[in-house]
Design a protein that fits this description.
Keywords: Membrane, Transmembrane, Transmembrane helix. It comes from Pelagicoccus albus. By secondary structure, the protein is mainly alpha-helical. It has one domain. It is 72% helix and 6% strand.
């Protein structure tokens, strides 16, 4: 129980804080219009066209902060506020997703590694409900630790995936900030809102990595105890 409190409880707190931080920053700067009155869709298109990308569809998807880039189908999805919006938050998020498209175009190594891990990560993620609430908590030691071993394998994959995700996301944000200014979409002084929004979003990826690492260490400690 002590190891659970030390390793897992802080990750819940960090995740809750990170989610609140990104929603607070986004909620604030989605209300701040950019001077250029350019929409998120237009900003994403400008960033991609500068990189010579003309074969990626930009589509609108429902929800808030549901924005993502799909490298398999070459599809950049923006939530309604970011697709049509002209706010600092909308432009930052849209340019960030376009940054992923640029990574794909130039063959950014960490994005390649992340894409390569997706199949095995999906398998590990599908096993998570059984690992989190499965019988190993009760019968793990009696069954030779098989459920614990599966849990360790799954969280090892998830931790590696979240670790690789960090440089991918940081690099996309760096590209976004650079291109928004170089293309004249935002003034240097307007980057404050973009920085706050994207830096807050980055904490959610850090929290995901820390959470996976915490569970991995916790399960490893349980596995070690079951062998004693």
């Amino acid at each position: 129980m002590l190891s659970f409190i030390i390793l897992i409880v802080p990750t819940f707190i960090l995740a809750f804080w990170a989610q609140n931080k990104v929603r607070s920053a986004y909620g604030k700067y989605v209300q701040v219009p950019s001077r250029g009155n350019i929409t998120g869709r237009e900003a994403a298109m400008a960033v991609m066209q500068k990189a010579g990308i003309y074969d990626v569809d930009i589509v609108q998807v429902p929800g808030e902060l549901t924005d993502h880039y799909d490298p398999v189908n070459k599809r950049l999805a923006l939530s309604e506020h970011n697709y049509n919006g002209t706010s600092l938050a909308a432009l930052g998020v849209a340019a960030h997703e376009a940054g992923h498209a640029v990574q794909h175009k130039v063959g950014y190594s960490m994005l390649k590694a992340r894409m390569a891990m997706i199949p095995v990560t999906n398998i590990a993620a599908s096993l998570m409900p059984f690992i989190m609430f499965g019988p190993f908590f009760i019968f793990g030691a009696a069954m030779g630790g098989i459920f614990l071993k599966i849990g360790v394998a799954c969280y090892l994959v998830m931790t590696a995936f979240h670790l690789i995700t960090l440089p991918v996301e940081f690099d996309a944000s760096r590209r976004a900030k650079q291109e928004l200014v170089s293309l004249g979409i935002l003034g240097q002084d307007e980057l404050v809102g973009v920085n706050k929004t994207l830096d807050a979003a980055a904490w959610t990826y850090v929290a995901a990595f820390v959470s996976s690492l915490g569970y991995l260490i916790y399960l490893l400690s349980m596995l070690g105890s079951s062998r004693d």
